[in-house]
Structures are given as C-alpha cells and as structure tokens.
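Need residues for this backbone.
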C-alpha cells in the first residue's frame, strides 16, 4: 500500500475525488442510464457469494421483459482511469464457443423448467472476435516500464458471474407467463477505457490495439439449479459482456433485438 501523506484532506480534495475518481459516482451514472431506458433495477444491496459464502455487495441488477422474454443483467461498474485502461486480447470465436443459454419454462402441459443452449447463437457467432484475457496496462512510476495487472478487472468479473447465481435460482422457480429467461453478466467501464488487440488463429496480431466500446469475454461458467417441480439442470453462462459507457445504447438495442437474445 502506498504511504499516505499526513496533510489534511480538504473539501476541495473531496470534491475533486467525487467529480473525477469515484467508483460510486460512475456507478450512479450507469444506474441512471438503465432506469431511463426501461430497466427495473436493484442497486447496491448485499448477496451471499456462492463460492466464499461471504456477504458481498453487488452494483446493479437490471431486468427488462418484452413479451415472453426476460433479460436479466448482473452489472458491475469500474471507473478505470486513463493511466490504467482495460485491454482485451481477442481471438476468432470457435464453433464450440458460439452459444448462449436461457431458462425455458413450459407452463402446459408439463409445468417444467430446463436450460437450453442456443448453438449457433445469433449473439455469439463463430469467427467473430471474442475476448480471452484481460489486462490493465499502466506505467511504473519509478522505472517508467509498462506493467499490467488484471486484479481489479478480475474481481469485478468474478462478482458479476457470482451475482448471476441468484438470478438462476430465482428464474428456476418463478412460474409466470415469461417463457424464456436470459441471464448475462456485464462489466461497464468509462468511455475511452476499453481497448482491443486481436490475434489470428496462428497467434499473430491481426489488429493492433484500438479503442472499442463493446466486447465480450468467453467464460463457459456453469450454475446448477433445481425447479419446484424437481427439474435439475445446469445454466451455462457462456460470455461476459464488457461495455464502455458510450456503447451501452447500441449494446442494449442489440441484446433486446430479434437478432440478439430476444430472437
């Protein structure tokens, strides 16, 4: 931990912090965006981590329903700085990675739940770029050498995945007219803080690092669930969505379109 100055923190210091550096202020902007765009949201409540069994705090749970589809987003926010942006290394997506899942409730005649893997997916297509690793890249203050560390990003990604467990449990027991329930973890970062470098299948860089506003990261992370009718199934979270704030509109429009999760 860096050694702290003994100089008192002033009101101006605190104002500068909340204006430029506060994770919470950024989180509130993201929350405001989702609420203004038709999502029902829970904000900043606690949940029990299914891996560590410890209480943790999620950022945003956002849901939108259209017809027989509900899209549930486990949204985590991180206010990355220009001195430490997020770089995603991508590869062409394989056939085996081109899928997403949804929970399907059949009201009649069976009253049953199951998890359906959509492959090929309209959202995650073969040969399109998919993230494989994350790096935050900065420069060491003393040596001036470039360094990378994905600890902050990994913590937020893990939290988004773990929050999905509560959605899976709820949707596996929720009897309603909504037949298809899709659950997606999301990481939102500030505009200009998301970068991509793309590799071909031979491991050669085919696209040099560039700023983007939307990528996804392959996960293939499973959560087990059991319905009140005794149906036991595995919901496979195939991808995490990573979106810069200025890309939220286009990303949500795509997710909820006939070419997205609502196909």
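Answer:
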């Amino acid at each position: 931990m860096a050694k702290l100055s003994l100089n008192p923190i002033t009101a101006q210091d605190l104002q500068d912090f909340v204006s430029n550096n506060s994770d919470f202020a950024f989180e509130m902007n993201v929350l405001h965006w989702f609420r203004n765009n038709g999502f029902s949201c829970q904000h900043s409540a606690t949940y029990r981590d299914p891996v560590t069994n410890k209480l943790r705090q999620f950022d945003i749970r956002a849901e939108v329903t259209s017809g027989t589809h509900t899209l549930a987003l486990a949204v985590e926010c991180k206010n990355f700085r220009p001195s430490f942006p997020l770089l995603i290394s991508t590869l062409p997506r394989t056939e085996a990675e081109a899928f997403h899942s949804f929970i399907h409730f059949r009201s009649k005649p069976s009253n049953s739940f199951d998890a359906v893997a959509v492959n090929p997916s309209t959202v995650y297509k073969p040969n399109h770029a998919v993230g494989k690793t994350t790096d935050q890249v900065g420069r060491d203050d003393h040596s001036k050498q470039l360094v990378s560390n994905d600890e902050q990003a990994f913590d937020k990604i893990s939290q988004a995945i773990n929050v999905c467990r509560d959605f899976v449990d709820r949707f596996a027991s929720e009897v309603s007219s909504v037949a298809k329930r899709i659950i997606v973890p999301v990481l939102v970062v500030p505009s200009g803080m998301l970068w991509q470098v793309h590799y071909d299948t031979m491991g050669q860089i085919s696209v040099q690092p560039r700023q983007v506003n939307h990528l996804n990261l392959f996960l293939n992370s499973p959560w087990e669930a059991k319905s009140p009718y005794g149906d036991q199934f595995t919901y496979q979270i195939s991808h995490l969505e990573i979106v810069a704030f200025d890309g939220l509109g286009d990303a949500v429009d795509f997710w909820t379109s006939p070419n997205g999760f609502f196909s």
